[in-house]
Amino acid sequence: MFKKISDALDAIESRLTARELSCWAANNISLPTGVLTIPDEAQASCFFCINTAFERMTGYTKPELIGHSPVLLEGEETDKEAVRQFWEDMDREGKALTTVVNYRKDRSAIETFILGARLTIDDGSGEPAHMYFCNYYPVEEVTVLPRAVSKKSKTTSLH
Questions:
Q1: pTM of the full predicted structure?
Q2: Angstrom distance (rounded) from CA 140 to CA 59
Q3: Cβ neighbours for 151, distance < 8 A, ≥ 6 positions apart
Q4: How far apart are the C-alpha atoms of 89 and 94, rounded to whole Å?
Q5: Kind and range of the H or E element at 49?
Q6: Mind listing the pLDDT tens digit for each residue in 140-157?
Q7: What value, to the nearest 5°, has the Cα angle with vertex 86 and ends 81 and 89?
Q8: What percent of the chain has pLDDT over 90?
């Protein structure tokens, strides 16, 4: 999409769409990152952009994940209550974190620390665009967790 930051800044000045800006950001971050749509009442949140680090971590390719819910990454050991609390915190606070067991494409389990934020971008349409920007970290690679993470609940909102 963009090769240099200056290209992105020029695009922002020309009212780059929120989706384009989010995808540029995700693809220029080395952490496994997924950008999701904000769900409406008729539809669940789904990926509209992931980066190559996310592909490597999960084993899924972009075409396999784009348009699909992150539920695709869940499995029998996924703590559904922690996931529900994470999305509730995202809706209420605009940011959240949790640790859950997700599953790669080959269905091997991977304990994942997820840090998310709701982004609001004025794309010039007159209505602000909203999306979820989530970084996924394999817990085995995380050396320092924020103190706000409760070992009891594994889920907290960030303050």
A1: 0.69
A2: 17
A3: none
A4: 7
A5: strand 47-50
A6: 776 554 444 444 344 443
A7: 120
A8: 23
